[in-house]
């Protein structure tokens, strides 16, 4: 029974992961990725890793909502009204992906895998808590400091008021055609780009 | 038996993620490929911990570290996208050609 649920969840995770790069809308793609993560979290819950599984579901739900908002804010075609296929080096990528899949699968199938399942009387969440605040406390705290540094870095990178003036000073959007007029929004005063065009480079 | 299936699923997720990270032009779609690879890594950790390690607590710790890596990747990735958009108004990798030649 457990096996059937695990296999179904894994198939669902792989299928939704594949759908991420096949749907026509970036919002749908991020929700598809969220479903893939939720399925993996479900595998964690079924395979007696409830804390990690539930934490994955919570974290990914928030993260993919942020991603969907980003799609609407920045990206073209978030609604999926047109077919979307924005790829480069496509054959190489397909080859690399298939090669990675086949190589890892061969390694899995040819390796002698250990068999030592978790028993039902183990207190896995209790063990994790003792581990986090005991022997592995330094690792756990390092992860916390890393996340703090990430927050500082994210604020600095995304701030409009850069250290050396406005972050969009001199911003010049790429042209629609090679060497053509800039596309998109022209930053207003303070952005450094005044309202006459400079022509191509 | 189940461990093999879990690991095969994880390798499929990693392969799809690699394809996405290499092929997508949009920054956010590219990040989705990276996230999909980390998703496969978490799946492999869950499988190994639950079926092959007899529940060693360090295995769960590794999963937590992968989740922290994911959070760092997402936060800094989005911040970089915002910074690039401010400077170049670009959301595609092809629009960043200044390092060419």
From TrEMBL, chain A:
Subcellular location: Cell membrane
Region feature (Disordered): 163-201
Topological type in the membrane: Multi-pass membrane protein
GO cellular component terms attached to this protein's record: plasma membrane
Domain of life: Bacteria
EC number(s) recorded for this UniProt protein: 7.1.1.-
EC category: translocase
Ranges that cross the membrane: 6-21, 33-52, 58-80, 92-113, 133-157
InterPro entries in the cross-refs: NADH_UbQ/plastoQ_OxRdtase_su6, Nuo/plastoQ_OxRdtase_6_NuoJ
Keyword field: Cell membrane, Membrane, NAD, Quinone, Transmembrane, Transmembrane helix
GO terms for MF: NADH dehydrogenase (ubiquinone) activity; quinone binding
Family: Belongs to the complex I subunit 6 family.
Function noted in UniProt: NDH-1 shuttles electrons from NADH, via FMN and iron-sulfur (Fe-S) centers, to quinones in the respiratory chain. Couples the redox reaction to proton translocation (for every two electrons transferred, four hydrogen ions are translocated across the cytoplasmic membrane), and thus conserves the redox energy in a proton gradient.
Protein name: NADH-quinone oxidoreductase subunit J
Organism from which the protein derives: Tranquillimonas alkanivorans
Lineage, top ranks: Bacteria, Pseudomonadati, Pseudomonadota, Alphaproteobacteria, Rhodobacterales
TrEMBL record, chain B:
Enzyme class: translocase
Signal sequence extent: none
Matches recorded under InterPro entries: NADH_UbQ_OxRdtase_chain4L/K, NUOK/Mnh_C1-like
BP terms from Gene Ontology: ATP synthesis coupled electron transport
GO CC entries: plasma membrane
EC number: 7.1.1.-
Catalytic activity reported: a quinone + NADH + 5 H(+)(in) = a quinol + NAD(+) + 4 H(+)(out)
Example of a GO MF term: quinone binding
Pfam families per record: Oxidored_q2
NCBIfam families: PRK05715.1-2 (NF004320)
Job description of the protein: NDH-1 shuttles electrons from NADH, via FMN and iron-sulfur (Fe-S) centers, to quinones in the respiratory chain. The immediate electron acceptor for the enzyme in this species is believed to be ubiquinone. Couples the redox reaction to proton translocation (for every two electrons transferred, four hydrogen ions are translocated across the cytoplasmic membrane), and thus conserves the redox energy in a proton gradient.
Similarity comment: family membership: Belongs to the complex I subunit 4L family.
Record-given protein name: NADH-quinone oxidoreductase subunit K
Source organism (scientific name): Tranquillimonas alkanivorans
